[in-house]
Amino acid sequence: AQSVSQHNHHVILSEAASLELGCNYSYGGTVNLFWYVQYPGQHLQLLLKYFSGDPLVKGIKGFEAEFIKSKFSFNLRKPSVQWSDTAEYFCAVNLPRGTASKLTFGTGTRLQVTL
Amino acid sequence: GAVVSQHPSWVICKSGTSVKIECRSLDFQATTMFWYRQFPKQSLMLMATSNEGSKATYEQGVEKDKFLINHASLTLSTLTVTSAHPEDSSFYICSATTSGRRNEQFFGPGTRLTVL
Question: Is residue B79 exposed (0-12), middle (13-18) or buried (19+ Cβ within 10 Å)?
Answer without folding.
Answer: buried
